[in-house]
Amino acid sequence: MSFLKELFSTKINIAGIDIGTSLIKIIQLNKTAPDKYQLVKVVLNSTPAALIKDGIIIDTKALGENIKQLISTNRFNINKVVASVSGQSVVMRPINMPQMSDKELQNAIRFEAERYLPYSVADAQIKGIILRKSIEGDEKNMEVLLVAAPNEMVKKAEETMKLAGLSVQAIDLEPFALLRTLRLSVDAETFSRTIALIDLGANTSSINIYKAGVLRHNRTIGLAGNNFTKVIGQSLNLSFGEAEKIKKDKGIIRLEGDATPLNPTAMRIFNVITPIISELVTEIQRSFDYYRSRYRGESVDLVVLSGGTSSFKNIDAYLKNELGISCQIAKPFKNVNTVNCGFPAEEIEDLSPALVVAAGLAIREFV
Ligand SMILES: Nc1ncnc2c1ncn2[C@@H]1O[C@H](COP(=O)(O)OP(=O)(O)OP(=O)(O)O)[C@@H](O)[C@H]1O
Ligand SMILES: [Mg+2]
Asked: How many angstroms separate the alpha carbon of residue 326 from the centre of ligand 1?
């Protein structure tokens, strides 16, 4: 029986692919037992310049070709991919609507969406997800997550995958991918609490708040690693590439009360990035305030950071001090066997915060 099953079943090998503004991340994870995974393969590669703008792929052909090369050079044995779209034009927002069936909702949401979208409803893919069928103190209404992305953004992502010779299993949204990885990497008690997962990327950062595994807030802001690199480059008169390097090697946030002297370059970097990190704190506070006002004084219990910029030295300790909330850097592979992934353990640990989205895409079909 099992022999026949093996003989006739075509194994689906899926990879998660996160096309960031700065890095393309491709990951394959295998499920070895319930809630147990093995990291089979990881690829991180610079995204060729100017191929993506504001989350929309500009040159599908060039990017598709680039991904095709990465897949073949790294000998991926996959037949499907899960990719994602992201950026400031992806809208995910809880709203209250009259109680109705799911089928009615998918029609009604298009009318409701009009006032929340910065683009025409006719040009968008829109979906409503029922979060709560009834709301305490507001009996006639239910809570719905309005999800929308421009058609063009989704179309270009699909086209790129096809041009890369890959078959698309799904185009997902980053907050759902982040949540899947979070579930895999924290204990059940922690997961049941209110967690803000903040993905600090290169072009944008996203602030996501989940309560007991349900997305309740999502906002994308145009403040991320590239802003650091640009001011460092201007201040030290360096090219973008040189500024990137010095940011990673020498950049550090000096914590209040820490009297340890910084060398002149580190001090200069710290001075020029201070206004940016202050602005980041203000934006995070704004999201937390909105959350508190929508959910009657409920607050965030824990902040988890992901994305490449979460590796900026001391950013976790700084945010913990400023927000007054415990803050940790994501460990997506805490419960994943990484021994045969092709990277030494220490290296994969250092890279892993940038791989949270890709990991969540890679396990989409397993959970
Ligand atoms: N050790 C480090 N210190 C500081 N910054 C770092 C470090 N490592 C990576 N970064 C920054 O992380 C960013 C890349 O992160 P990530 O891969 O999450 O972005 P992305 O997904 O490509 O971008 P986006 O999501 O905005 O499209 C870059 O700005 C890079 O400079
Ligand atoms: Mg990203």
From this structure: 22
